[in-house]
Write a structure and sequence with these properties.
Structural class: mainly alpha
Low-confidence stretches: none
Mean pLDDT: 96
Shape: elongated
Strand content: under 5%
């Protein structure tokens, strides 16, 4: 198979496996999604979903969040890890949303990435899942699988994102990035598949025998 043929096979099979693509992070609007994605850095979505109900019960808007002491935010989100930095970022971005954007989450990459604690991946998730703008956020699962499937060299997540955007139809990006994440969690995991075991790896590379070493 060529790289283009592999991409088409992956796109088709993942759509069959995951016709629905709910966002794994519990949220009710763009603001709560933004905060949840920020909290998910170096933390599982499952743990974030255990923490955010208490946080959002205290404050689920930028206005309310600015009234919560940073120390209290940090206490609530401590199980997510990196709580001092994340608490400051949540407080800071909430303040800037009020000062610069009338309390609304901005709808451009540049404005989102100008907020404290918001990098390109976080901005991409918000743009894709809150506003429906085509984006291809690359997390560890996507970075790993793209290498196993020989869609990218994996030298960096920036390169992986660029390569995947070239291979897949723009109108598929928002659902496809979630489908790859689901598949990476359920089938082509870091420990249960080494590039030779799961269905898609075996379909794409039926003669592959050696494990695939991926870059982080």
């Amino acid at each position: 198979m060529t790289k283009t043929e592999r991409a088409a096979t992956i796109d088709r099979r993942l759509a069959e496996l995951y016709p629905e693509t709910p966002v794994p992070l519990d949220h009710k609007d763009a603001y709560t999604l933004l905060v949840s994605v920020l909290l998910s850095a170096q933390c599982t979505d499952k743990r974030v979903n255990l923490v955010t109900p208490e946080l959002f019960a205290r404050a689920d808007t930028p206005e309310k969040m600015t009234q919560v002491p940073v120390a209290e935010i940090q206490r609530i989100i401590r199980p997510c890890g990196l709580s001092p930095q994340k608490a400051k970022a949540i407080a800071g971005l909430s303040r800037l949303l009020l000062e610069r954007h009338g309390g609304a989450v901005p709808r451009t990459f540049a404005e989102l990435e100008a907020l404290p604690g918001v990098g390109h991946k976080t901005a991409s998730v918000v743009m894709a899942q809150a506003f429906g703008v085509p984006a291809f956020p690359v997390d560890t699962h996507i970075h790993r699988l793209a290498q196993r499937w020989k869609l990218t060299s994996g030298r960096s997540v920036v390169e992986t994102e660029r390569d995947l955007k070239k291979l897949f139809p723009r109108e598929h990006w928002n659902q496809l990035h979630l489908r790859i994440i689901y598949y990476g969690r359920e089938h082509c995991t870091a420990h249960c598949c080494d590039g030779t075991a799961c269905e898609i790896c075996r379909t794409l590379f039926p003669r592959r025998k050696k494990p695939v070493v991926t870059r982080k």
